[in-house]
Amino acid sequence: MASGTISRIRLENFMCHSSLHIELGEHVNFITGQNGSGKSAILTALCVAFGCRAKSTQRAASLKDFIKTGCSYAAIVVDISNHGEDAFKPEVYGNVIILERRITELSSSTVLKDQHGRKVAHRKDDLIEIIEHFNIDVENPCVIMSQDKSREFLHSGNDRDKFKFFFKATLLQQVNDMLGSIREKLTSADAIVEELENSIGPVQKDLDEIQRKIKNMEHIEEITQDVGNLKKKLAWAWVYDVVKKIEQQADKLEKLKERIPACQLRIDQNTAIIEELRKESILKKENVKSFLEKTQEVQRIREKLENDMHEAVKLKIDLEKEHARGVQMLNKMNKRLTQLQAQVREFELRHMQETQAEVSQIEDNKRELHQEINSSHLNATRLKDEEKKLSEELWGISKSIGDIEKEINEDARRINHLKQQTKDFQQRQHDKLTAFGGDRVLSLFRSIERHQSRFKCPPVGPIGDHVQLSSDYWSVAVDCAIGKLLDAFIVTCHKDLLVLRDCAKEANYRSLQIIIYDFAKPLHDILNHLLPSTKHPTILSVIHSESPTILNVLVDQGHAERQVLVQDYEVGKSVAFDQRIRNLKEVYTPDGARMFFKGSVQTFLPPNRKGRVGRLCTSLGEKITEMQKEATGMEQINLERKGQKRKLGVQRDEIELQLRSLKKKRKDEELQLERKKVQLDDIKKFSAVNNHDTAVDTSELEPEMMQVKEDIGNEELVLQDINLKLTYALQEENKRRASCNDFINSAYAEMGSISDVQHELQLVEEKIHDAQLEKAHYEDLMERKVLAPINIAESVYTDLQLLRQEYFEKASTICTESEVDALGGVAGSTVEKLNTEINKLTRRLQQESSRYNESIDDLRALYDKKRQKILRKQQMYAGFRDKLSACQKALDLRWKKFQRNAGLLKRQLTWLFNEHLGKKGISGYINVDYKNQVLSVELTMPQDASRDTIRDTRGLSGGERSFSTLCFTLALHGMTEAPFRAMDEFDVFMDAVSRKISLDTLVDFAVGHGSQWIFITPHDISVVKAGDRIKKQQMAAPRG
């Protein structure tokens, strides 16, 4: 079989086929079968296998639609013959190329295999290479004419569609597109070459400018010679300058050595001061030790007094419990006595009822008891009212004593706070720095001074020391708003931060806040729309600083531009919560109260009385005087309150004594009242009872009554004794409580003096530390500023001697001293003057050279280089132009050949068309208009006596139109080349005669043409006889 022909087609799950194998002959192949048997699916499978898109087959919208219903994939395998001289890579594929196309629901793949079924390639480019090699264009209707294309072509009477069919089948469309693309590329290349030719103009101008510069650079050589002479003088001037420096260094060395005695004196003085301070420190430590021992003794006494007070309280509680038990026992005895008396009265009443006189006596007794009961009731009520009045008065006095004690304690804390603030302000009068970190800041500054050489830029801080207020009125508010940021230091880089941390550690300043900020930044220019829209001042508007870095840090770190100051709480509440001002962060009142609004929460924070506020205040003297007056006034008020407390204590004791006496009288009166009521009830009870018995003897009850009365009297005496002890216990408790409080107050006063002694000891130790630091400073100064400079000066002196020798040798190599003398010498000229003259001439030389940027030699070399470059470019662009002209001529020649070949193909098409029509006695003519892109067919039928020409094939019968179309198609086949061709339902709409003539024509043409043909038809082809060159195959009937 010839190369490129199809030897076998295998389909699996493709369209209506589950599994189909077809062997094809080398020449003519007929495939027949009923409609629906899957004949057309074979040609569709060929198109898909050779890369045709699904829509181009007009049988499906996508490749997955070709998969048979109910299956998950479809496979097409095509065996391509690869024999002979035209074989494609026979050493790789062998005699057969197996093309396998596999389709799934999600993707499709193409695999190329050799004759043994081994996979060789899978890329689309490899398939395209095979298609181009064998000239297989499945979209060309002359290669594969599908059923739809056949019907479309047979039914179409449109001349433009026929032209497109002809233009594509003869490959004129492809050649025309290629020539058009080449013409566009030539036009683009011509524009590029023209642009390149125009780019030579500026370069030519530069070349002319260089030539002009060369002519103007003649005088530069003279300047160069003058510079050379001055450099000779400069070389010897360096020698003379070093000699002068050697003399100066010798004088400097003598002066440095004179500084040693003065520095050593300061070291000795500090050593003596340290010894004296150490002695003073030892004395202070002994005083502190004795104070501590006394403090321990005070603690023991305090504990003893508190224990005594607790014992007095415990004794009072025990007496109260014993008193309650005695009262309970007394009540029981009185109750028993009442019962005995009731029995006696009952016996007596029985006896009295025997006579009338006894009855009248009972009535009299009842009247007397009524009077006594009324009198006792009035007395009990009066005593109860007096007791209630005294209890209220006692509660009021106790509450007043508690309030006074609370006020005394609060004032004492306030007095201590004022004294501490006064001490701080007095310290700040001597040194403002102590307000922003205390004594630690002073130690930190001394450490910074010792390590100042390690800093890239000296740190700035504390921030509060660099800030001033426009008015002391806002000092507390600003202090509360900025807070700890006032104690912070600012450095310019991370290295300085580490150095400052070391200094803080050395000064025992552990919580130092350090901020890194660029000192070179200018002051922030804050736009108005970024500020709070209010008339009230902000923190930033009331503070001033000479350093823009300080203000920038307060803006960036503290948001000072967004913190607003108001006069009082009501205004602040309106600004912070009601007005909802943009860019507002917080609101502060003059006393330091803070208000802010976050989300839906309104927050008010009262002033912090414990913090150290008002550190920015400048009128410290007035503040100190004001706080001292306030402390003195509060102490005087406390003395008066203590006097009031003592008086109230005496009144409370008196009222408590009166209250206890009233309680005793009220209880006695109530007890007597109850007795009278019981007697009256007994009389009433017995007056209604008639007792006929004789007098009863009550002598048995009287001894028991006497014993109970005696027990009651003894118990009342015991209760009186307990009441007396309870009164003494209360007085003892108050006394011990007062002595304990007085002792604690006196102990606090002594503790204050201990604090003073400890503070003095701390000051002495700080002085020792300062003296040690100063001594270390002078020792370091001796090393760094005296001995080290002397060593450096001696080293410099030695280096200058060596440098003089070096300069002398270098100057001698440049020129001799006599040559410099011949040039006028260097007298009156210094190194600086010579350098100035050299620099002046050098600048002049540079100015002259800068006009051209290069020396005259460089310019000449550049001129030659640019001239050669322009010549090369001109030659190269001329070559481009020649090649473009040659390409344009070749394109024009190809275009003429294309037009000539198109005309020849038109005539050849008419000849071949008439040749095939003549087999049926029909003649015709094909007119191709390339300009309007139309193709018309004219036919003359043999039975037409008029011999009129039919210009529209739609006027023919179905068979005549199909036959004429077949002839037109065969004519095109004769003008194209392909390894195989396929036609589906080529004989549609033909009658039996036309079909026989068409079949004979097709078979003769196919056999004579020599390529492989595949004919598909549903009609009977029994008139065609099978042979060596003709193979017939019948498709199985479709299943119902």
Automatic annotation (TrEMBL):
Database matches in SUPFAM superfamilies: P-loop containing nucleoside triphosphate hydrolases
RecF/RecN/SMC N-terminal domain span: 6-1030
Localisation: Chromosome; Nucleus
Taxonomic lineage from the root: Eukaryota, Viridiplantae, Streptophyta, Embryophyta, Tracheophyta
UniProt organism field: Digitaria exilis
Signal peptide: none
UniProt-listed GO biological process terms: chromosome organization; double-strand break repair via homologous recombination
GO cellular component: nucleus; site of double-strand break; Smc5-Smc6 complex
Keyword hit for Nucleotide-binding: yes
Alphabetical list of InterPro entries matching this protein: P-loop_NTPase, RecF/RecN/SMC_N
Coiled coil: 246-372, 645-679, 754-781, 831-858
UniProt name for this protein: RecF/RecN/SMC N-terminal domain-containing protein
Transmembrane segments: none
